[in-house]
Automatic annotation (TrEMBL):
Upper taxonomic lineage: Bacteria, Pseudomonadati, Pseudomonadota, Betaproteobacteria, Burkholderiales
Organism: Collimonas pratensis
Pfam families, A to Z: Acetyltransf_1
Protein name in the entry: Acetyltransferase family protein
Record domain N-acetyltransferase: where: 3-160
Length: 162
């Protein structure tokens, strides 16, 4: 499948980025009840962070394109609280692109970018109840690292690049 990755332009595609973030939140927590507290009114906090980081090479915000439309989103950075590990904030695909092998390409893209940035692996935080995500992470080599102390529903997972 011919997948393309384009940096998110907050001026033209922010509403899509926010909608994807919201859907991801619902997939993780079952509702968007706490979502707006995290992203701010109309997503202003999220937009401000994206704007501040858009020229920083350590931060990566991409929309995933196929057949002329946006089908997903990636958010990651080349640093974390762990030495030489990047941090993945978001792997997201719209529902019709889930479970058909597209995630493999997204995962490879993120891994390649983090390796190029000098990372030996990565960490992400995932909901204990998002079983489809946990299953795909495990299939790609992610392993449980421990609980996320910031949220009882989340655990940290790690992958080491070979």
């Amino acid at each position: 499948m011919d997948i393309q990755y384009k940096k998110i332009d907050p001026n033209s595609n922010f509403s899509r980025a926010l909608a994807f973030r919201q859907d991801s939140f619902v997939c993780s927590f079952g509702s968007d009840e706490e979502f707006w507290k995290e992203v701010g009114e109309e997503g202003c906090t999220y937009r401000d962070k994206m704007e501040q980081r858009k020229d920083d090479e350590a931060w990566c915000y991409y929309h995933v394109w196929h057949a002329g439309r946006i089908i997903g989103q990636l958010e990651f950075r080349s640093f974390s609280d762990w030495d030489k590990l990047g941090y993945v904030h978001l792997f997201y695909l719209i529902p019709e692109y889930r479970g058909i092998g597209v995630f493999d390409q997204l995962h490879r893209f993120v891994e390649d970018r983090l390796i190029m940035a000098g990372c030996s692996g990565a960490v992400l935080s995932a909901s204990k109840t998002n079983l489809p995500a946990l299953k795909v992470y495990e299939r790609h080599g992610w392993y449980w690292l421990g609980p996320n102390p910031r949220h009882a529903m989340l655990d940290f997972y790690r992958i080491d690049f070979n």
